[in-house]
Every structure is written in structure tokens, then in C-alpha cells.
Amino acid sequence: MPISITYVNILSSLPPAGTPAIKRHGVDSLIPALREVAPEALIVADLKTMDVGGLESRIAFRAGADVSAVLATGGENKTIEAISEAARQGKVILIDFIGCPDPIEKLDELVQELEGHEDQVIFCLHRGISEQLKGRGIYEKKQLLAEARKHAGEFPLAVAGGIKEGVAKNVAGAGAEICIVGSAIYNSSDPKKASKRILGEVRENYKK
């Protein structure tokens, strides 16, 4: 069964601390605040780390995050550092492919490089908000989603970017284990009901 990461608690309590919020409030303020209101949650620190992966992930984990996000672009040393830190602390690194010009090629490289770390890594296909303004979300890229799920092998695959009710089925149907939903929930007039509807759609259409 897939896990849904959203800005409210819908399944398995995985709220992300988004990048703008972390930059505004700071890791040491925001993550403990989330932990206070959701003590059983698995908290994702969306740091989008581009350098010093070990240091930034350690900062996030010490503040109470369970998952820290590193960018797939750039050098691989920062990713190795972050994963090493995650392994030491029993945490997880989410590798974000936002802005990656050839995500499948990069995915293949990382799968080979990170073999044996399937328990410490989540791969995430991501179309950012600025890119969504030029078109639709990543859910329209059905072939890319299916290829990514196949190439990810034993690593879990997350998908983010413009996912909402009526299109979450495309992500779930492609086999992604994690469906990240943001604005479709926190901009809803009734976030709880929106969460339940999207989660139902994901569950109904998920194909392993």
C-alpha cells in the first residue's frame, strides 16, 4: 500500500516541513513545533540540500526530522554524506529530482551507486511550483512515472508536483509508493475531507 505525504496527516503521519517554511522559521524552531503537535509523525525536512549533505541532514535529524531531502542534481558526494548520516541515525534521505534535466539517466546512476541503501533512500520525481505555473503537474507525465518506477528497482518512489483529486490516480496507477500532496489540501476549504478523498483515490488505483 502506498504512503501519502501531505501537509496534513492523512496516512502514516508524514508531514513535510516545506522549504519556504524552514527558511523562514529555521530547522530548530519549525521541526520541534511540528513534533509537539504531531508526536507520532514521521517528519520530512525539505531542505533541498545541494552541498554538505552530512552536515545538513545531521542538523535536520538532531532537530527531530525523520527524513531529510537532498537534491539529485550536483555532485554525488553530498548525497553519500547524507545517506551515511541517515544510516548512523536510523533515518532516511529523500533524493529530490526537481530540475533534473534527465531524471531517468540520473536515477539509473544513483540506483547503481546506492545499491544496498534501499532502506535509507527514497527517490522523488518532482515538478516544482514555479514550473507548474508554466503548465500542468507531473501527473501528466505517465510514461515518465512508469519508467521511473521500473528503473527505481527496490528503492521506493515518491512523486510530487501539482497532484490533486482526479489526477492522483495517475501517480498511484504508475506504481509510486508515495504520493506527495500539498496545495490541493492546504488550499482546500476542508483539508480533512480533501485528504480523505485523495487518499481514497490513491488506494483505489495503486498498482504495485
Automatic annotation (TrEMBL):
A GO term (biological process) for this protein? 'de novo' pyrimidine nucleobase biosynthetic process
Q: What keywords does the record list, in alphabetical order?
A: Lyase
In this chain the Orotidine 5'-phosphate decarboxylase domain maps to 2-198
Q: Which InterPro entries match?
A: Aldolase_TIM, OMPdeCOase_dom, RibuloseP-bd_barrel
The name under which this protein is listed is: Orotidine 5'-phosphate decarboxylase domain-containing protein
Per its UniProt record, what SUPFAM superfamilies does this chain match? Answer: Ribulose-phoshate binding barrel
Under Gene Ontology molecular function, one entry of this record is:
3-dehydro-L-gulonate-6-phosphate decarboxylase activity
Alphabetized Pfam families for the sequence:
OMPdecase
* PANTHER family per the UniProt record, alphabetical: 3-KETO-L-GULONATE-6-PHOSPHATE DECARBOXYLASE SGBH-RELATED
SMART domains, per the entry: OMPdecase
